[in-house]
Write a structure and sequence with these properties.
The complex is a heterodimer of chains A (217) and B (223).
Chain A lengths: L3 E3 L2 E3 L11 H9 L3 H23 L2 H18 L10 H20 L34 H13 L3 H12 L4 H7 L4 H26 L7
Antiparallel strand pairs in A: 1-2
Helix pairs in contact in A: 1-2, 2-3, 2-4, 3-4, 5-8, 6-8, 7-8
Chain B lengths: L2 H17 L6 H13 L1 H25 L5 H53 L3 E2 L19 E2 L13 E2 L13 E8 H6 L12 E8 L5 E6 L2
Antiparallel strand pairs in B: 1-2, 3-6, 4-5, 5-6
Helix pairs in contact in B: 1-2, 1-3, 2-3
Classes of the chains: A mainly alpha (217), B alpha+beta (223).
Chain lengths: 217, 223
């Protein structure tokens, strides 16, 4: 695993470095019972799955559970991986997404947005502009910003949350995210645009609610 | 670029501004930036999008601080070892099944062999085989139907049968069989049976006492 600075932004995804064994090979060897290959694959991928699960569930314990369940499934079903059907990353994220969905269903964490038009989009939120004195995060500490973002993110419908998480919080490019989400590029762009708008709207709402009554404009 | 188009790209433009990443094409980025400088509402949109991008960046960096999961890792390594053990056991079981299959095949082969041997022992002795002469040519045998074995009184070899001069010891009555054949007189002569001269090509019917080894021991003219 490596975290490298790139253009002032943290590159989070852990990819095999030059000379390292590719994920496909690791999976093949794992299927043959090679423990060291499993360890390498886990070390290379567990953090990105953890972050994905953390952003999707909003809770560290739930994210840990998803990581464990995801890799348990990999151990059990590694023979099912087929290079013709997708990348190891898509295979891994596919498993993780299923576990996240199951966990969210179990916990009924998802709350529908007010005036949801059935597509998860709040019709009033898209394109709405904040008034100059209602800017997001104004006067908030870093910790509070993170808390607000996580809380707002957890209220997005899963398909938008996944798109925002992969592209804006995990720095996947659109093509790679579309592969992971098994959807066309256009669908990903559309989900991402809506997800960002909805997130901004949620944050505005949360910000307005958290401001003392006297300070509202 | 109009406000509608700008809205489409505002978040990518904000990400470019905040993260320094290249997401939009150069021409689109320049056009969007120019629009945001000339349109106040879109400038506000961009500012808000930048705040969101910044908040997402902070959240990303915070998540990157998350440490390892030692308990999870230990549990997974144990699970992997357990899974590998169960796979190995399954393979051994399969191998055992395969061995037992081979054993079953050996048992089946042994049973067939025993059954065949039993049938050979219990069946009536029949012979329709050719009898080879000393010179290697085949005797004319009547092979239209297997002949029934005739018990031979080997204690009285002189009863009609003439022992062949170079035949080995007379066979036991259990193992010897009498085979009726058609053969030329010259073939009889080659067995050592005395024949009259000038009738070498005449075919005669004769009974041969044939030992277990297939060699004739005695001959009797049927006519």
């Amino acid at each position: 695993m490596h975290i490298q600075k790139r253009s002032g932004y943290v590159k989070l995804e852990t990819m095999p470095e030059k000379g390292e064994v590719r994920d496909e090979i690791l999976l093949q060897r794992m299927a043959a019972g090679d423990e060291e290959c499993f360890r390498q694959f886990y070390e290379r991928r567990n953090r990105s799955i953890y972050r994905f699960a953390l952003h999707m569930t909003g809770r560290a314990e739930a994210a840990e559970e998803v990581v464990q369940e995801t890799f348990m499934t990999v151990i059990r079903d590694v023979e099912k991986f087929d290079t013709a059907r997708g990348t190891p990353e898509a295979f891994l994220y596919g498993i993780a997404r299923n576990h996240v969905r199951r966990l969210l269903e179990r916990e009924r964490k998802y709350e529908p947005l007010a005036r949801d038009n059935g597509d998860g989009e709040d019709p009033d939120a898209a394109g709405q502009i904040a008034s100059p004195d209602e800017h997001l995060f104004e006067g908030l500490a870093r910790v509070e910003i993170i808390e607000h973002v996580r809380s707002a993110l957890s209220l997005l419908p899963p398909q938008y949350r996944e798109a925002v998480t992969l592209c804006d919080l995990q720095e996947h490019d659109y093509a790679s995210a579309a592969k992971i989400l098994e959807c066309p590029l256009g669908t990903l762009r559309s989900r991402l645009a809506r997800g960002r708008e909805m997130l901004a709207a949620k944050l505005r709402g949360a910000r307005a609610a958290s401001k003392p009554a006297g300070t509202r404009g | 670029m109009d406000c509608g188009e700008f809205r489409e790209f505002v978040h990518e433009l904000a990400l470019e501004n905040v993260r320094g990443a290249k997401i939009l094409g150069a021409a689109t980025a320049v056009s969007a930036r120019f629009h945001s400088q000339t349109c106040r509402p879109c400038a506000e949109r961009l500012r808000e999008a930048e705040l969101l991008a910044d908040a997402l960046k902070i959240t990303t960096e915070d998540a990157a601080q998350s440490g390892t999961l030692p308990k999870v890792e230990a549990a997974l390594m144990n699970a992997f070892r357990e899974h590998r053990r169960s796979l190995e056991q399954a393979r051994i079981r399969q191998r055992r099944l395969r061995l037992s299959g081979a054993e079953w095949m050996a048992v089946a082969a042994a049973t067939i062999t025993l059954a065949f041997a039993g049938w050979r022992l219990l069946r009536p002795h029949t012979h329709g085989a050719q009898i080879t002469q000393m010179d290697g040519s085949a005797l004319h045998t009547n092979t239209a139907a297997p002949r029934r074995a005739v018990p031979v009184d080997t204690t009285r070899p002189d009863a009609d049968f003439v022992p062949l001069p170079y035949g080995e010891s007379f066979p036991d009555s259990d193992s010897a069989v009498v085979v009726r054949v058609s053969m030329t007189r010259s073939a009889l002569a080659s067995l050592g049976y005395p024949i009259a001269a000038g009738r070498e090509d005449e075919v005669v019917r004769a009974d041969l006492i044939v030992g277990e080894d297939g060699w004739p021991r005695a001959v009797r003219i049927v006519q």
